[in-house]
Amino acid sequence: MTLETTATQPYKNTEVFTPENLTKLKSISYEYSASAGSYLYWEGDLADKLFYIIEGQVRITKATDDGKQLTLYMFQHQDLFGQLDSLQTSTHSFNAEVTVDSIVGIIQLKDLEVLLWQHGDLAVEFMKWMGLMHRTTQTKFRDLLLFGKPGALCSVLIRLSNSYGKEHGKDILIPIRLTNTELAEMIGATRESVNRMLAEFKKLDIIEYEDNLIIIKDLTYLRDQCHCENCPGNICRM
Fold this sequence. Notes:
13 strands, disordered N terminus
């Protein structure tokens, strides 16, 4: 069957910046080409840079004490990310893995400090961006900790629909192929438990598959299971 979809506009975490201020941030960056499978930084590296994705995708992960990997973010085109603790130098708490060949703009902390000192309106927007990132992290940990693995998986499916979803008739197609192992890493579960939960969702006609892609048929059910608080799309995203 041929998929007939209409793309939705993905949310970008740089939408808090005006075009003029986003241009100012880009003006102090330098471009870096990164191949798929490489890392922009590792946990414990010095956190003295921000990263702006010009093209590509980056996954932010955390290694657990038992050797498992937890995927916290999947950043894409026009997203800004990095760890800045009140603009004081610290070390990274996560790993940044490049998942497809990417071009990234790198902003040095010392250059950012000068720019924020020179432009008060940019400084205000930058504070809004930091607040947005903290709020996004808080909601993800809320979903992981409070409503069990089924609630966490429902949350991930909703976030994937906000980040990548396309209209597919009355349903939502997630046009990226994710293995059950990758979904398990997003919620801190085993692949086998994700297999069971997805099979149950399919049995209940909550989701279906087409060409190995997930189609969400009942978004309301997913929202009920994770006690959705109707967060804005720029927070409820991967």
